[in-house]
Amino acid sequence: MILCLGLDDRKITGSLHTHNILDSATDMLILRGTPKTNSKTVETGNTMVSYFCGDCGSTLYRQSSGFDSFVVIKVGLIEDVKASDEYKPQLEMFTRSRAGWREAVEGTTQAEGVFVPRG
Q: Which has the higher per-residue pLDDT, 85 or 36?
């Protein structure tokens, strides 16, 4: 589980970070509907594609050209209200963008920039 403090994620959420689950793109299954997409170049130089609900506009997941075998799923979309407890962050990335008054989450790995998963 990853907290992303990058400026791009901050802008799409209106918050100081996003809480994400990184999962294999091959495991991703859309049960109904077809997400709409928006692509942009992010600060790493990679293309980030946001997949969002065409009805309500909620970001469902994102996928980066830098690690396209993975999808980044937003924890806030999980209907179980205890999901934030279950998916405790293990990594904070783009810590260079962290608000000066916000402390690091205890026990998480800290990365100043992007973290590229293996696999």
A: 36
